[in-house]
Every structure is written in structure tokens, then in C-alpha cells.
Amino acid sequence: MALALLIYWFALILAGIATIPDQLGLAEAAFYNLGVIYGLSGTNIPDPYSTIDLCENIGIRKIRLLEHNDYVMLALNNTGHFEVSIGVRNDELPEVASSVQAAESWYELRVKPYHHGVIFDYIVVGNDAIPGPYSAYLAPALENMMEAISVWEAGTSTKVTTVVSDSVLNPRFPPSVAAFKPEIKLYMEKVLKAIRKSRPVQSRLMVNVFPYYDYAAGIIPKDFAVFGRDKPYFWDSNLGYWNMFDALVDAFYWAISGVGVDGVFVEVAATGWPSAGNDKFTTSAIAAEYNQNLMEHIVNGNGTPYAPWFIEGFLYSLYNEDKKPVGPAQHFGLFNPDQTPAYPFSVPRDPPTPEAERVIKG
């Protein structure tokens, strides 16, 4: 695993040099590693055209859709500078897993009409499908989707992956002893092998990382949850952990290594903090602190103690969504449905100067 990580590090550097447009500054290119989830579970979610304008204004260039939506795809078509990730719903997994032809049909209806006008970064096959009733369908669905993409787009840069949360891990701490739960270990091994087969270089597993839940459960202190410590909270051998985000990401790296699948790297599928819904644990001030510090953490490019390179991922989410279950789930948005900020934050660019940030005031 160590050799693969080193190779990956150099590949990232070379890829970054080769692909960053001349007109972008270095810090903007770094922020390009962080996108946002555009959820639609609300009664007054803004239309996709104004949403695209909003993302452009705040400097977001990566958008993740949890499922296909023609209206959103039409708005994104021919914009030219957004990377789009689109999801296969869990209830679609049995059909996609049934045959390559079924995966081709899914792709032909939802991706192919837009593949000349949209940059597809990922097709995300399933969301938190393991553990659960769709676990056995996930690996064959991934394999079929990869085959379907190769039929339509030889040499495509579109990647295929899935999303899991830390519910697949036990234990989680310290990161070096993290492992997949015995009852789902075989499923995870098959999924990881499928992902690895799809892309021998830079294959990714997406993971949900939410320190909020550990803080709200009283497991960790606030400063460790929100990147607020000035020294490590704990040491794992010679690796010092200053925040829970890094500890969770590295726990997945160790769990992947534990099933003997080399060369699969971790990308953050979703992370964020609710600004209301659970009393003192979900104030707008804490949400602002977490998300602001998270953005700075992504931009600085230092990665995690075990994996010291650029982290890529998605903030959850762009808007507050009132069709989510009552409570914190409705309040993860950076913005309200009227596109006013849920709280003030700054989108980082170059080393911190007033000219180097776009300040979004609440």
C-alpha cells in the first residue's frame, strides 16, 4: 500500500500540472478539489439555472447529484467548467446488477444525452448501500456500469465508485486498527476489487465523513470535531491526529489495506455540519466554524497524517432541505432556499488576504 500511495502522490502532482488551466490561480485550482452536493429534497429549492450562477459566484466547480434529474442536467449542459457526479439510486441497483445491457440502458438514458456538453467526473453507484438489503447487488452493479461506460466512451475520464459511511467499520479507533465489520467484509472486498479493476491508477472509494455525529453523541470534544485544536488530540503510533475528519479518513485507508486491496484511495462523498435542529450541537456558529476550517484544510493540500496529499470531496449540502426528516437533517445547507447564506463563510483562495477570499455574509 505504501508504494502505491507514493506513486499516487506523484501522479497527483503531474496531473495537477497538466490539467490546471492557465487562467486559474493555484489556490483556486486547489479549491477545485472541493465540491458541493446539490440536493433537491425541499419545497422551495432554487431552479438549477440560478443555482449554477450561485456556484459560479462562490467559486464551486464540482457538483454532485444524488440521482439523475433532467432539468438540472439541461442547465448544466454546455456550461463547460463544472465537473458533475451523478448517482445511481439504491433501488436501481438490482436492475443495473442484472446485466451489462441493463447498465447500458441506465447510462444511455441518463448520461449519454449530455456527455458532449457535461464533464462527468463520477458515476456513483449506490449511496450507503452497505450494510443493507442491496449489499449483494453493489459489486456486480459497479462492474456492469464500468463495462457500459467502456462501450459508449472508450478512454473516458469518467470514474465509477460507490459511497459508504463509517457504519461499515468496527473498530474505528485508533485508525491503524480500523477494519470492516466481519458481516460485510466480503461485500466490501468485492466492491473494492471492482473499483480497483475499473481504474488501475487513481481508483477511488467515496466515504461519508461527519464528525458532527460523534460530537453530538458525546464521544469527542468540540475542538477535535471542528479542526479547533492547537496540538494533537491523540497519537496513533507516530501519527498525531488534530481533528476527527482526518481520523475517519485514515480509518478507511487502514480498513482498505486490511482486506488486501492495493491502490484504492479515499474521496469524501459528503461532509458538513447542521446549523440547527439539535440544540447546542447545531448552532450556526459551530456549522460555520466546521465548514470554514474544512475548506481551509482542503485548500492547504496537506491531506491527513496517513495520506499527506490533496483530499477531494463534497460539502453537504448546498441548500437547507425541508423535506428531509425533521431535525438536523434539514439544516446542513450552506444556503437557505432563498439563496441567502445560512451563516457567514469565506471561500478560500490564495494565502489569506482580503483580496484572496470571496466572503459570503449571512
Automatic annotation (TrEMBL):
It catalyses: Hydrolysis of (1->3)-beta-D-glucosidic linkages in (1->3)-beta-D-glucans. The keyword Signal applies. Residues 343-362 are annotated as: Disordered. Gene3D superfamilies: Glycosidases (3.20.20.80). Its EC number is 3.2.1.39. One of its GO terms (biological process) is carbohydrate metabolic process. Residues 1-19 form the signal peptide. InterPro entries: GH (IPR017853), Glyco_hydro_17 (IPR000490), Glyco_hydro_17_plant (IPR044965). The keyword Endoplasmic reticulum does not apply. Pfam families: Glyco_hydro_17. SUPFAM superfamilies: (Trans)glycosidases. Keywords: Glycosidase, Hydrolase, Signal. GO terms for molecular function: glucan endo-1,3-beta-D-glucosidase activity. It is an enzyme of class 3 (hydrolase). Belongs to the glycosyl hydrolase 17 family. This is glucan endo-1,3-beta-D-glucosidase. The lineage of its organism: Eukaryota, Viridiplantae, Streptophyta, Embryophyta, Tracheophyta.
